[in-house]
Structure formats: C-alpha cells, structure tokens
Amino acid sequence: MSVLPARRRSARWRPVGALLAAVALGCAGPATAVSPSPFGPTPPRHPYAGPDGTATMHGDSGSSDTTPLPGPGVGTLSSSRTALASACPTVLVGADGYPVALCTPIFGQVPTVHLLDPDTGSSLTSLKLTKGSLLGGVYAYIDHQDRLVVADGSRSLLRVGHHRDSSGDWNLTVDRSLSLASVIPEGDAVTGLAPDWDGRVWFATGAGRVGTADDTTGTVNALTLPAGERVANSISTAPQGTAVTTTHATYLLTSDGGTPKVLWRKAYDRGSARKPGLLSWGSGSTPTFFGPGSGTEYIAVVDNADDTAHLNVYRTADGSDVCSVPVLTAAAGPGSENSPVGAGRSVFVAGTYGYPYPAVPDGAGPSVPATADFAGGLTRVDVRPDGAGCSLVWDTALRSAAVPKLSTADGLLHTVVRDPLIPGTRGTSLLDPFRYVQIDPADGRVTRSSQVGVGSLYDTLQMAGTVAPDGAYLQGTVTGILRITAR
C-alpha cells in the first residue's frame, strides 16, 4: 500500500475506527490485542488500482473481501453517523487517505459521489452523476491515481478525481470520460467493472454484455453472453483473466488485443426461482479469486439450489471442479447475495436468505416463497491442502447484515449483525438493533461487539464495509455512513 502523505501520518491516524449513518449508540469494553491472521496470501497488488483492501467494494480487483489493514483495535468501541439521506453501498479509500463514497439518494435516486473527511466522515463535497438502473452506479473502484472509476446512466465510463481549488476547497470533477454507447444499447446498463493488468477497464452489463474499454485510446470492445443470461453482480479480475458470474454460469475471459474471449464456462444450479433475500434468480456472488500460492488459483461462487446452497470452487486455470459444499445449513437459510470472502485455502460465506430488501431490480422476478424470515448464517470452508476437494470447518447462525471483511493484519472478520427486536426470534422489524462485531475466523465465535444503532436508519442492507488507514470501520447504510472506532 502507498505511504500516506505526512499530514495523514499524524497520531490521530490510530488503528481504530469506522464511518457511517445517523446517531452514535452503544459501547463495548476494552479489547486485548490480537495476533495477525494466518490467512493468506490474497490476490496480488494491482498496478492500475488503489491500495489493497480499500480500492474496491470487495477490497481488491479479485474481490477477496480481505484487507491488509487492522480494524478498530484496543479501547472502547464507539460509532458516529454521517447522515446523507442516501444508501451508500460503496465506500473506498485512495492512497491519499481520503474516503470516497458512491451513494444513491432516497429521493430522486441520482447516484452521487461524496468526498469524505478522513477524520470525521463528514462530506467535504459531492458530485451528481447521470441516473441509471438500480444496480447501475453501485460498483466502482479507485484507480492508481486516486480517481473513482464508475459507469453512469448515460453509459459513459468516468474517472472522477478530487482536487483543491485556489481557495483550498475540495471539488469533485470528471477528469476523463468515455462513451460505451457503441456496444451498450439503450435500456442496458453497466452492472460491474474492474481493471485488468493491461490497464483496460472490463465491464459487464445487466443484459449479459461483457467488454473492455481503453479510455486512453477510446477503444471499446464487447461480446454478448448466451441469451437469457444476466449479470446482477460485479466482476473480478486477476492476472489470469476476468471472472463473471451470470444468472446461469461462471465465466473466465481474457482479451485478445482488447477483444474479449471466453476461456471457460461453468454452469451452476440456479434453482427454480429467485429466493427471498436475493436480488436476482441465480447466484448472488461476485466471483472471488483466492488460493494458497498466488492468491488466485481458485474462483468461488455460491449457487442458488432450491433446498441447500452450495459453495462451488473452480480451478482458475481451466474451470475444473474443486468442490461443491453445502453451506449455511446451521441457519437453514439456503441463499446468499454476498460475495464469498477468500484468503489462502479458506472461504467464508454469509447468508442473506430472507433479508428484507426495500426494492429489487427490474426484471428480478418474484421470489419463491414471497417472503421468509431472515435466517442469516456464516460458514467457513477450506480447500484441502492437496487441492482435491474441500472440508466444512464451521457453520453458524450468525445474522450478518453486511458483507464481512477479513483483516489479515488483526486476524478478525469484521461485519455488522442485525439482532431481532425480540431475542430468540428470526423476524425483522423497523426497530431492529444493529451491532458491529469482530469474529474469530478459527471458530466463528464473536469475540467483541458494540451496538451502532437501533432502527431502519442503521440498516446496513448487506453492503460491504471498508477498513480505513486509521483503523476506522466505514460501513454504508440505507441513510448514510457509519464510522466505527476504538478509543
């Protein structure tokens, strides 16, 4: 990770914290120091992306959902809320230490970029983008020059930079723009994007188009995946290629001079319908690169089988099967909308079955059943040392309400859980309490927690958190951003 400027290396950047949404509640007692994680390696450092752990929603271009930064450390946990009247699924941090959030306002739903104060989490300035689909403008990444790379509703690829003007005030500006309209027709929109190792930007659209864009030359290329296959989550890149999971199958693609081509395709069990707590009929996974050697030997996704969801692991080289293991059985909730967490030989899967999303994308179709209690669940699966299959390590009924992040620095899983208003039940209500928790990945046990708020203002809506350079945990909610720290 890049060294922070001198101003950012001050004592106030202590290894504790986090950012997001409405009123600060709850405290926990002091915690003892923890040992670094035994998990790793993680995907290799990307030359065209920002710092590992903070460059993408899922930490890195391989979507490992890991970070090399320690989260809130020794001291009493506390939280503060930045109220933005917006759902903020993407909170990233560049090498300069300034968080950048991509949010969708509750009213108007026009995607808006916010530059945040790294010390307080308050919005320093904002920039509205062109409105698109519900999932358009959700996935983005920070590039190697601290610019937010995102596709807007006009089907343009943007690089948004933050700069000080002559008076010292911050401004967000579109530093570079490239139209993708030549390969994306009206009515379609970019769902996910990520950089490759040649400096191009890969993108995938809801209607199943996958392409590359070079905004230095203006070159755009794309191919269309089989009819009926949609892309409802983001995509992932590694030196071996680009992984895309559609509503039917997982693909690995490469490019020949910028023209995408399919190396392999693996169909999975998509079930008979969309499930409650999922946003599409099929896998809810952004594919995860992981592995014990290079950090990218394997790709993991969760299927949508009717009775039991499975973690499917493939070999990146040829798409051959490593294993298909039932997961989330302790919570009896067969479904996950979240990207698996992957590091070394280990994968962690969080369940979302029954999560009460306020809206689903157009064309998602009805869920079967129409509703269900939020089951939650968290499972760890390890690939065996010889690579010949996988083993279930533990399976718990933890009700994670966000995408967990694994810190290889402090050796903990970090997430927010949604507790039932009535203890012992599995229903959800507008008055549910939310807690930040730290989890021991060795056994799935919660080692430390602190309530961050009560009620729907604090709903983390299965969005991913980010550990900032000072240890603050920045977590998006439906109304803004939480900043969780330890003092």
Explain what this protein looks like in three dimensions.
- The protein is 0% helix and 41% strand.
- It is globular and about 55 Å long.
- The strands form 8 sheets. Strands 1, 2, 4, 29, 34, 35 and 36 form a 7-stranded mixed sheet that branches. Strands 3-30-31-32-33 form a 5-stranded mixed sheet, with no helix packed on it. A 4-stranded antiparallel sheet has the order 5-6-7-8, with no helix packed on it.
- With 487 residues, it is mostly beta strands.
- The model is unreliable at 1-35 (pLDDT under 50).
- It is built from no helices and 36 strands.
- The chain has strands at residues 16-17, 19-20, 66-67, 77-83, 86-93, 99-105, 112-116, 123-128, 141-142, 148-151, 156-164, 170-179, 190-195, 201-205, 209-214, 219-224, 236-238, 241-245, 249-256, 259-267, 288-290, 298-302, 310-315, 321-326, 341-343, 346-350, 378-383, 390-396, 402-403, 405-407, 412-418, 433-440, 445-454, 463-467, 471-476, 480-486.
- The protein starts with 15 loop residues before the first strand and ends with a strand.
- It has one domain (6-486): YVTN repeat-like/Quinoprotein amine dehydrogenase (Methylamine Dehydrogenase, Chain H).
